[in-house]
Structure formats: C-alpha cells, structure tokens
C-alpha cells in the first residue's frame, strides 16, 4: 500500500511539473513569392471595422514584429511601400460528440455516425423545485456533447502596384476555449513558419508552448 501511494504521489508530481503543452494547427499556403530578394517595405491595409479597433491594433503589432524578423519593413507615413499586408481572423462555433473512455459507444462505419447504446434507465418521478415541474433524472448514456471553437487566421500579402497577390496563408486551430486572442500569436507563428512555405500545401504544424 505504501508503495502504491508513493507511486501515485510521484505520478501527480510529474503531471503538475509538466507545464508544456502542444499547439497544433492546419496551415494552407498559396504564393507566388519571387525567388530573388526584393524590397519588402509594406503598409497594413485595413478592412472596414478594423480602423480604430484596439483588438485589431494589438494583432497588427504582433504581426509587425514577426514580419520584421523576416526582413519586412513598415514604411513611415508619406513613404511609398512596395507591399500591402492584410490580416483577418474569425472564430466558428463547432460541436462534437464524444464518449467517456469507460463506456465506448457504437460507431457506424457506413454513415460515420456515433450512436449511444440506449442505456437509459427510468427512475421514479421526482419534483423539481427549480422549474416547479415533475421531472425524471437522466439515465446514464455514453454520449456527451462538447463545444469546440475553430479559430482562423489569414495573412495576405499583395503588391501595391498592380495588386498582384504574392502570398495567401491561412492557419486554423480547434480549441475548447472560445477566446481567439489567446491563440492569435500561435496562429501567426504557425502561418509564418518557413515563410513563404511550399506553394499549394496544407500541413499540420505543431510546436511546444510553455504555460
């Protein structure tokens, strides 16, 4: 018994000390980036609603520092840049079904649907003081609903003269937390990894995040 308790204590300590997590995203890259080195001066182009938006300004600041690390240079007001950079972001609510590991459900490979096992037990009726109505307690089922959020980021780089699109990069990540601001820095790092990347590719990008 003492050995078992010692093992349990050590296991808990390892779990608590392991603060690093893995951020995973899908990145799609389309570009016609020139092979030769070119002038990378740029300005940000803002969509309606992004002007004077504190949230968008923060995201521009985050992107600006990352672009500077790649050799881009934002021009001062009045100067003429070569490129314009746009950044868009959005969150989509999604719902998934999952089953507790201790009670696997039934999976239909033809329809791709996940069914419960029909284990509902009817209990004696009781009175609900909250609703003031009679109700039945819910029986056990192996299916639960859980919401997830698809956070998406798009970075578009275009020539100012001629309006030729040079790079269009999209990164997305599915998370349980609905707040996109927590993930914008990681989505940017994923999108700009190995910039400009392989044209026409969609890949999974992972890296360790220290909490």
Structure description:
The strands form three sheets. Strands 3-2-4-9-10-1-11 form a seven-stranded mixed β-sheet, covered by helices on one side. It has a two-stranded antiparallel ribbon with strand order 5-6. A two-stranded antiparallel ribbon has the order 7-8. The protein is built from three helices and eleven strands; from the N terminus they run αββαββββββββαβ. Mean pLDDT is 79; it is low at 2-17, 114-132 and 135-140. The two termini are 34 Å apart. It is an alpha+beta fold and 211 residues long.
Short description:
This protein is an alpha+beta fold. 19% of the residues lie in helices and 39% in strands. The chain has helices spanning 2-17, 54-69, 184-191; strands spanning 20-31, 41-44, 73-74, 83-98, 106-108, 113-115, 126-128, 133-135, 144-159, 165-175, 201-210.
